[in-house]
Structure formats: structure tokens, C-alpha cells
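REQUEST ID: PR-0412
SUBMITTED BY: lab tech R.K.
PRIORITY: routine
TASK: structure prediction, single protein chain
INPUT:
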Amino acid sequence: MLKFSILGALQVRTVSGPAEICGDLQRTLVQTLLVSEGQPVSGESLVEEMWGEAAPDNQANALQAHVSRLRRKLKALEPGRPVSRVTIHPSGYRLTVDEDEVDAAEFVRTVREAESASPYDAEGTARMLGQALALWRGPVFGGFAGGTLCQLAGARYEEYRMRAMELRFDAELRLGRHAAVLAELAEAHTNHPLRERFCEQLMVALYCSGRQADALDVFRRMRRQLDDELGIQPSPALRRVESAILRHDPALLGDARSTLLQIA
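STATUS: complete
OUTPUT:
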């Protein structure tokens, strides 16, 4: 079995160790087929993804040559596999992979499970999401995004990463680990200053760590930034967190059996 990793620079691992996919065009071909999640990709889309406006005159032949090269590479990595992973269909080219063979698919599945998990199992949720977030080794594709299909997929996976972070922080705060996640929350808020959920969570963590003034200062800076950059006011949820802090709402200090931010 092969393991494909795209939450970071493209990696292919075999039972005997890592294998290298050489060349930008080959990497883009593999990445595009992987993010299509087992669905065929048309030759036109692959050409656009691999070459963009610099496509060669003999596009079909050039693409077929790269597909054949990829087939040989994968066959060498799995000599016992009876059929090629790369197949041709009327609608295009398809790379056969199981969900547990691609780190991105495994990550998305875990985030969806966490979204439907019981709020009373905060410990399990925090542990599950911590393990999932550890799959990330850097930007999707190592920042080598290729064309539109890969760029859109990268943005989708990045959004899932933000959601995973939010859910994990929620679980950690429900467990009362406010001080333990302060540094991570501050970093998340700094890196994504317009994402209000991180701001809410940071405010709660600061307040529950005995730093009410700092929590309110975070809100004031967020309000100015939203006004300066987007011309909007904080969301009702963010304003309710500020109000809860001002009135010392006991819901902010709930334990693992309560739902974080009932006031939000």
C-alpha cells in the first residue's frame, strides 16, 4: 500500500520508505489526480493544471507521456499490484486511492467526525483533532499549488484546518485548559486576525486565566481592525462574548460537561 501526503510538500511513502516524485510536471499531475478524490479528471483540465498558458503544441502526446511515466513509477513502487492505479475513462484520467491512503482525506474525515461528536467528550475530541492537526507538515503541496484545481483544493483543506483548530480550542477550553492553549490561540489570532472565532476563544482563555483587561483589549483591537479593513462591526457572537466578560457570566467558566460559550 502507498501513502500519499499533500498536507505539506508532496510525499509518497511505501512499506520500505519514502519515494520521490521527480519534476514539477509529475508532481502537479499527481497532486491534481489526488485532490480529485478518485474522480476522473479531463485531459484538458490536466493540461491546464500542468502547463497553464505554456502548454506545448502536442498537448495530448505530452500529457500521455507524463501519464505513462507516472504509471511506470507507481508500478515500480507496488510491483505486486495487479492493475495500474492510473486508469483512463471516457471523462478523463483517474488515480485509484483509498481514503486512508491520502492524508488530506483522512484529515477531512476526522474534522467531520469531530463536528458531530458529543460535546460531553471534550477529551476525546481534543485528542482526535490534535492527532489530525499533526498530519500537517506545512502549506498544502508545500506551497507548490499548481493551477486552479489544486489552488481551490488547497484553500478547501486550509479551511478545514481552521475549523479543526477552532473545534480543538473549544474542546480544550471546555476542559478548563485555558492557560495551556493561550500561546496557540494568540498565534492563531495573530495569523488570522479577521477570523472572529479565534478572537472569541482567545478572549475567553484570557478571561479564564485571570486577565480580563487583556481580553477586553483584544476585543477593542479586533473592533478597530474590522472597521479599518472591512468597514464592519464585530459580529453579534463576538459582542456577546465581550458582554459576558464585562458581566462575569459564569458560563465562561464552565467545566468539561458544559457547552463552551453558551452566551455565544
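NOTES: Strands lie at 3-5, 11-14, 17-19, 86-89, 92-95.
REVIEWED BY: pending
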